[in-house]
Amino acid sequence: MLRFEDVVLQQGDFTLRADWPVASGAKLAVIGPSGSGKSTLLLAVAGFLPPMQGRILWQGQDLAVLPPGARPVTMLFQDQNLFPHLTVAQNIGLGLSPRLRLTTQDHDSIARALDRVGLPEMAQRRPGALSGGQMARVALARALLRARPILLLDEPFSALGPALKDEMLDLVTGVAQDTGALVMMVSHDPGDAQRFADQTVLVADGIACTPTPTSDLFANPPPALRTYLGS
Ligand SMILES: Nc1ncnc2c1ncn2[C@@H]1O[C@H](COP(=O)(O)OP(=O)(O)OP(=O)(O)O)[C@@H](O)[C@H]1O
């Protein structure tokens, strides 16, 4: 279980509060207006923004003692953070060994991860020779290989067209099922939340609200969500 316990996060003048638990393995969408604090919430879980107050607990352990690299977390950003000078296989291998000391077994795992995301032939290419959708798949393969129990996605597919984005969301769903990871995905598209997430966190007015079943939230939107949706 991931628990925000009376958490207060601050960036400059901006303050965000969160106080709720979410079960391991849940698929959460994080939605809300621009500047409402969605990325702030993810950065805190990843360890790049220590809470001003309260604790973030994973399986009962306060994450504050762990630096970002030691947290049970993989984070994917929109730019996919692929290194242009490394091959696809090496970029994925970074998920296993930051110094790229890869064993035969590691290379087998990389090949399996590439298969899983539908890119079996691309191991020796460099990111510059891939389409946007293929880059997104490589980044996902790296996350798959790290197999950390929390996967944070900060609008990772927003640059992709609608069909490709849906394909990637389905792939993330599959990956999350394979690894049993808790997924928190920031998105500006309510359709993403409805397609992907069993629960949704609305971030608005300085509060990351308690996760609500996605279908209930959209069937009966609270005022802040209605304003955001423009309905
Ligand atoms: N380094 C910083 N210093 C000061 N204020 C910051 C900093 N980073 C973010 N903020 C402020 O914190 C607030 C929340 O930002 P955040 O990026 O979390 O919002 P968001 O909901 O992810 O927005 P968007 O949907 O536009 O990406 C914003 O008002 C932003 O201006």
Automatic annotation (TrEMBL):
The gene is thiQ. The lineage of its organism: Bacteria, Pseudomonadati, Pseudomonadota, Alphaproteobacteria, Rhodobacterales. Keywords: ATP-binding, Cell inner membrane, Cell membrane, Membrane, Nucleotide-binding, Translocase, Transport. It comes from the Bacteria. This is Thiamine import ATP-binding protein ThiQ. GO terms for molecular function: ATP binding; ATP hydrolysis activity. InterPro entries: AAA+_ATPase, ABC_SmlMolc_Importer, ABC_transporter-like_ATP-bd, ABC_transporter-like_CS, P-loop_NTPase. Transmembrane segments: none annotated. Residues 2-230 form the ABC transporter domain. It comes from Neogemmobacter tilapiae.
